[in-house]
Amino acid sequence: MTEFRLKKGSELIQEYLLEQLRGGIYMPGDKLPSVEALAQQYAVGRSTIREALSALKAMGWLDIRHGGGTFVRKYEQTPSQQLQGWLTNVESVKSLIEVRKMIEVGSAGLAAKRRTSADLQAMAACLHRMEKHLEDEEASQHDDFLFHVLLAEASHNEVLIPMLQMFHQKCAEHMGETRRMWLFGERSSTTQLLEEHRRIYEAIDAQDDKLASHRMLEHLSKIEARLD
Length: 228
Fold this sequence. Notes:
There is one protein chain. By secondary structure, the chain is mainly α. The protein is built from 11 helices and 2 strands. It has helices at about 10-20, 35-40, 45-60, 80-85, 90-115, 115-130, 135-155, 160-170, 170-185, 190-205, 210-225; strands at about 60-65, 70. About 25% of the residues are buried. The chain is elongated. The protein has 2 domains: about 10-70, Arc Repressor Mutant, subunit A; about 80-225, GntR ligand-binding domain-like (Four Helix Bundle (Hemerythrin (Met), subunit A), Up-down Bundle), CATH 1.20.120. GO terms for molecular function: DNA binding; DNA-binding transcription factor activity. It comes from Paenibacillus alvei.
């Protein structure tokens, strides 16, 4: 049976505060209420508030001054910080999946054309580990993530490879969530998800770029459909 992770209190507080930051309730330069005041407002512990504030700081939204309070940052976020911040609601996740489709469908086609025997061995070994870890959701999720990275590397495009590596690194948590959406929406098991990846691999092995792209599109479209 697939287990679904419930959000921690700090993650919920982070989402509430992020909505206020995006909605202009707190403007650049504004000082947020104290940790104690926020803890009382949301009826949670101070450690929960501190964890949420630290996450928002890492995303580029806040400046925490020890002994001086927490302030909304005035400067623009970097693209990678914006990307992390966007992954907090369904519409943003839909947009991200659209981007994944545009990039990874083409990447699968290139991999089919350019893959080497070493690339195939690496992807096959990853699929073997995924099969071995069918009962271990955390390990299986890691294998899932690695398969997409190995596929990008098999494209042998010097621009695409580092771009996709960075993209997947930033979106690792999101990919885990969409993986769980796939499992829940299909009422299926990790065995069927493994088969999705195996079918993509077989098309790459056969050097059928159109089929590889089609199967990747099919794979990502299933995730997208779960959000409707």
